[in-house]
Design a protein that fits this description.
3 helices, alpha+beta, tt1808, chain A
């Protein structure tokens, strides 16, 4: 099956947990999506951004995790086995340690970052945007390494993202959750 193709069957976390560990999949509302291996540029961007965030979080209560790291997004008080949405965003910042367990994270991270790849762009910009909004992810960044822009969604008081803010990578981008942190894109000159 090709990258980001989907299986036409309904799956839950109980099914997902039995799949081979050397294959990367995501479940979105019961639909399984295969995930291609990331490109070198994708990995570089993810690593560099993750490193800047990690350096900032050293004295904070929040932690950063990178893919593959399972984030289960249950509907209400669903048992883990019944959860039909498990994603592996490129980067996730989680400030509530009670959401962390040996399986990964149960519930919405505070901040999710996706680095666009041709095979996942539509899913990241559409399906995941609505999914993250519905589950209460406070800040959602979509990074386009080729066109060199970042799209920032911030959850409003009404529980919706509204229109995103768009930033070029010619200057650092401020992080809403951590006002003293700005992501410096200088590394993109070499990416």
């Amino acid at each position: 099956m090709g990258a980001a193709e989907q299986l036409q069957e309904y799956f839950t976390y109980a099914d997902y947990a039995k799949w081979p560990e050397d294959e990367r999949w995501e479940l979105i509302e019961g639909v399984a999506y295969a995930m291609a291996a990331p490109s070198r540029q994708h990995q570089r961007v993810s690593f560099e951004v993750g490193f800047q965030i990690r350096s900032h979080l050293t004295d904070k209560r929040c932690s950063i995790y990178s893919a593959p790291f399972d984030i289960r997004l249950p509907n209400h008080n669903e048992a883990d086995d019944d959860v039909n949405t498990t994603v592996q965003p490129d980067l996730a910042v989680i400030c509530d340690k009670n959401k962390l367990d040996d399986k990964g994270c149960r519930g919405a991270p505070d901040w999710i970052i996706e680095v666009l790849s041709p095979s996942t762009a539509l899913k990241d910009m559409d399906k995941k945007r609505w999914l993250y909004e519905r589950h209460g992810v406070q800040e959602y960044w979509i990074i386009h390494p080729t066109d060199r822009w970042v799209m920032v969604y911030t959850l409003k008081d009404d529980g919706q993202y509204g229109l995103p803010l768009m930033f070029g990578m010619d200057e650092p981008t401020a992080v809403g959750l951590f006002p003293e942190l700005c992501i410096d894109w200088a590394f993109m000159q070499e990416a």
